[in-house]
Amino acid sequence: MCFQDEIGFSLLPAVRATWAPKGVTPVLRHRFSWKRLSMAGVLAYRPDRSGTAFVFQIKEGAYNTESLIEFLTALGEHFAGDAVTLIGDGLPSHRSKAMKAWIATQRMWLRVEQLPPYRYELNPIEMVWGNIKSTELANLCPDTIDEARAATETGLERVGTNYDLCFNFLDHTRLLL
């Protein structure tokens, strides 16, 4: 069972509450740049709860149908032909004619289901993005997009190697495998 989503991040800081000495207001100084990267990720669970996998990709620019097909092709290679049920949102590139045609050629390993509209809280990978933004990216004011990318990759690796955290995200949705 795989939950999939995309997100973007930039040089703008993810502002979060913080502590400061009394009378000293914390100030974030940043470059106010809209330069951004996009991430696609899949949080995968075995139905018997014996394991999880977190697969992600970071790229410049936004995801479109072609780049999502490339990501899903790599996902198929990662799972080496195992049967996968992919659950995602209703992003237009997920529903395009080209995507539907590609999915039709992948029926031997891939089944795609869509979450109900406006129900992002049912997708555990949404909690991955929030966790990284509130930890590694919280109040980060990088000078370059590479610094933001490095911090993001650190967070992605942290989440991906923490079995309990990945299942906590699923449990929070109250969905059953």
List keywords for this structure.
177 residues, alpha/beta, 5-stranded mixed beta sheet, 5 helices, 5 strands
What is the element layout, followed by pairings?
Layout (H helix, E strand, L loop, with lengths): L1 E9 L25 E10 L6 E9 L4 H14 L5 E5 L8 H8 L5 E5 L9 H11 L10 H16 L2 H11 L4
Parallel strand pairs: 1-4, 4-5
Antiparallel strand pairs: 1-2, 2-3
Write up this protein.
The chain has 177 residues and is of the alpha/beta class. It has 5 helices and 5 strands; from the N terminus they run βββαβαβααα. A 5-stranded mixed β-sheet has the order 3-2-1-4-5, with helices on both faces. Helix 3 crosses helix 4 and helix 3 packs across helix 5. The longest helix has 16 residues. The protein is globular. The mean pLDDT is 88.
Q: How far is the first residue's CA from the last residue's CA? A: 7 Å
Share in helix: 25-40%
How many helix segments? 5
Work out the radius of gyration.
18 Å
Quick description:
The chain is an alpha/beta fold. Helix content is 34%, strand content 21%. It has helices spanning 65-78, 97-104, 124-134, 145-160, 163-173; strands spanning 2-10, 36-45, 52-60, 84-88, 110-114.
